[in-house]
């Protein structure tokens, strides 16, 4: 159903958003069916947002320690909680960013699928509530509940986790692999897929799902990885890493 908003004394008809599953696109080796989103947005309503690309982090980088609360449950999570898993996906996201919103349903479906295959998943929001109160913990809890996030959505109030991981944008994806008792080591630091807001490219999760397939099957992950693109992390006033 289309919505009507009043903007500058004129009415603008917002397009209907439909969601369908596409079987015409390739399925990952473990059987993940990508979610295809059709956003029929007129050019005059195109989202304009400054783009920030994830920066190079050396593959093999060891996952840093963290101790972060989950606003939805009040539980505090640490890296040690995920030691039994063969792989860990860490995502830096937030509530307000249009690049994150564009991928949300795809992220939920992909992570649900791979959690059943043994993948551990967390998401972290590091944005300053001084500049973006909509990204605060109470709204994070609402977002996680509303969207049915199948992973802990953690609050990085100090922004130390963002600094330690080297995160600069939302969304940003870090896929770590683990070999026995060895520490988690970075295998993939790239994009979800080629889709962007208003790009008319369907959301498939192709790049990330391929990397997860390779990690879970013990295969090497290509070092040729496209950077993730999104909104910049909103640092506390006067603080930037």
Brief sketch in words of this structure:
This protein is 19% helix and 24% strand. By secondary structure, the chain is an alpha+beta fold. Mean pLDDT is 85; it is low at 1-26 and 35-47.
Short descriptors:
241 residues, alpha+beta, Glutaredoxin, five-stranded mixed sheet, 4 helices, 14 strands, 19% helix, disordered N terminus, oxidoreductase activity
Any low-confidence stretches, pLDDT <50, length ≥5?
1-26, 35-47
What is the helix fraction of residues, given as a range? 10-25%
Q: Tally the structural domains.
A: 1
What's the rounded overall pLDDT mean?
85
Side by side, the strands of the main sheet go 10-9-8-12-13
Radius of gyration: 18 Å
CATH topology: Glutaredoxin
CATH architecture label: 3-Layer(aba) Sandwich
Strand content: 15-25%
- List the total number of helices: 4
Topology overview:
Elements: E1 4-7, E2 10-13, E3 17-21, E4 35-39, E5 52-53, E6 67-69, E7 76-78, E8 87-92, H1 98-115, E9 119-125, H2 137-147, E10 153-155, H3 160-165, E11 169-170, E12 172-177, E13 185-188, H4 206-216, E14 229-232
Parallel strand pairs: 8-9, 9-10
Antiparallel strand pairs: 1-2, 3-4, 5-14, 6-7, 8-12, 11-14, 12-13
Report on the structure:
- The protein has one domain (11-232): Glutaredoxin.
- The N and C termini lie far apart (44 Å).
- The radius of gyration is 18 Å and the shape is globular.
- Residues 1-26 and 35-47 have low confidence and may be disordered.
- Strand 6 and strand 7 form a beta hairpin.
- It is α+β, with helices and mostly antiparallel strands and 241 residues long.
- It contains four helices and 14 strands.
- The chain has a five-stranded mixed β-sheet. Strands 5-14-11 form a three-stranded antiparallel β-sheet.
- Residues 57-217 form the Thioredoxin domain.
- GO terms for molecular function: antioxidant activity; oxidoreductase activity.
């Amino acid at each position: 159903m289309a919505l009507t908003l009043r903007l500058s004394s004129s009415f603008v008809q917002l397009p209907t958003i439909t969601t369908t599953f596409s079987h015409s696109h390739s399925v990952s080796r473990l059987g993940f069916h990508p979610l295809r989103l059709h956003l029929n947005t007129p050019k005059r309503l195109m989202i304009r947002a400054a783009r920030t690309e994830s920066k190079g982090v050396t593959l093999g980088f060891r996952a840093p320690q963290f101790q972060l609360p989950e606003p939805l449950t009040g539980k505090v999570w640490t890296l040690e909680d995920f030691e039994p898993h063969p792989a860990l996906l860490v995502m830096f996201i937030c509530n307000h960013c249009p690049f994150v919103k564009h991928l949300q349903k795809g992220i939920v479906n992909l992570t649900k699928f791979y959690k059943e295959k043994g993948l551990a998943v967390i998401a972290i929001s590091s944005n300053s509530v001084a500049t973006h109160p909509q990204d605060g913990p109470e709204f994070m809890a609402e977002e996680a509940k509303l969207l049915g996030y199948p992973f802990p959505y953690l609050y990085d109030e100090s922004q130390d986790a963002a600094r330690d991981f080297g995160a600069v944008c939302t969304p940003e994806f870090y896929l770590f692999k683990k070999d026995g008792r060895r520490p988690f080591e970075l295998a993939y630091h790239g994009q979800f897929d080629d889709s962007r807001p208003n790009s008319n490219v369907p959301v498939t999760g192709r790049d990330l799902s391929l990397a997860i397939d390779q990690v879970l099957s013990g295969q090497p992950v290509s070092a040729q990885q496209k950077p993730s693109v999104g909104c910049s992390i909103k640092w506390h006033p006067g603080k930037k890493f």
